[in-house]
Design goal:
Layout lengths: L37 H25 L3 H24 L5 H26 L5 H24 L7 H4 L2 E3 L3 H8 L1 H9 L7 H16 L3 E3 L11 H17 L1 H45 L1
Antiparallel strand pairs: 1-2
Helix pairs in contact: 1-2, 1-3, 2-3, 2-6, 3-4, 3-6, 4-8, 6-8, 7-10, 9-10
């Protein structure tokens, strides 16, 4: 009499919902029993709030309220920066959260800035201006798709060295608004010129999808001797952001661009050192085998 093989009952454990921590952190899916708690859903709620903030910027731009439009996207960037940290703190990271976060980023930092800048400046150059706006939105979406495709890939030289690949989407949106910051403070129409704006937006779009190594804020480790100075500098920068927001944002963006060559040099040093260590290890292994 043949015995029936025992069927193994599959256990379907619901994954906790929450956005990825950040581009320089691991967005691993955490599984656990029981239903979803409000604490586990909090990161997703913040991601949805960031999406609403970014899209509301489009509404302000349609009404011609440019400052509110830009600030809405900036607020979306702040919310995007904290939702992942909260997800990691609450152990509520998941693949669902990573996908939701990327979709929200694509709309808040790709579509919204492109439409805002088109309504602010690029509509005076309808064809080429719209092409530049499309290029920015598409490159933002491509960058986020590339990041999602590499979540589970172990071989990521930039990430393992503490760097990012290309300019992150929120940073790209902030850089795209740099001409507006300068125009608001100086009143020079040069910064609102559609040709200048189109060229600037195209450059930022290329930086977002480039393979160059860029600095990661999470990998910065200030030395113990200067930590108090760093804290004081951050506090003063926050005060400056409240008093002179456009000058401060412009300074931050220009400073970020100025540090990009330093990041490339630093990554090149790390890459060469790793190559030397691998060569030495290979030589030692071949010598031992002999």
């Amino acid at each position: 009499m043949s015995r029936r093989p025992k069927l193994r009952r599959a256990s379907f454990l619901p994954a906790r919902i929450g956005p990825k921590a950040a581009e320089d952190e691991d967005g691993l899916e955490q599984r656990g029993g029981g239903g979803l708690t409000l604490r586990a859903m909090l990161p997703n709620a913040i991601t949805a709030a960031a999406l609403c903030s970014g899209l509301t910027g489009i509404r302000f731009a349609i009404d011609g309220e440019w400052s509110y439009a830009i600030l809405a996207v900036v607020l979306a960037g702040v919310l995007d920066g904290i939702d992942g940290r909260i997800a990691r703190l609450l152990n509520a990271q998941s693949r669902f959260g990573a996908e939701l976060d990327s979709l929200a980023d694509s709309l808040s930092f790709g579509v919204a800035p492109a439409l805002i800048l088109f309504l602010w400046s690029l509509n005076d150059l309808p064809r080429f201006g719209w092409f530049a706006a499309l290029a920015f939105a598409i490159c933002c979406a491509l960058r986020l798709a590339r990041f999602n495709a590499r979540i589970d890939v172990d071989d990521q030289p930039h990430k393992s060295a503490g760097f990012l690949t290309g300019v992150p989407a929120p940073v790209g949106a902030g850089l795209a608004f740099t001409p507006f910051y300068l125009w608001s403070e100086t009143g020079l129409e040069f910064f609102r010129n559609p040709v200048v704006m189109a060229l600037w937006l195209s450059v930022i779009a290329v930086l977002m999808i480039s393979n160059m190594a860029t600095m990661s804020w999470g990998s910065l480790r200030p030395r113990k001797a200067i930590r108090l100075w760093v804290i004081a500098f951050v506090a003063l920068a926050f005060a400056a952001l409240l008093l002179e927001p456009w000058w401060t944002l412009a300074t931050i963006c220009i400073g970020y661009l100025a540090l990009m060559p330093y990041g490339l040099v630093k990554y090149g040093r790390i890459k060469r050192r790793r190559g030397q260590e691998q060569a030495a290890a290979a030589a030692a292994q071949s010598g031992g085998a002999a």
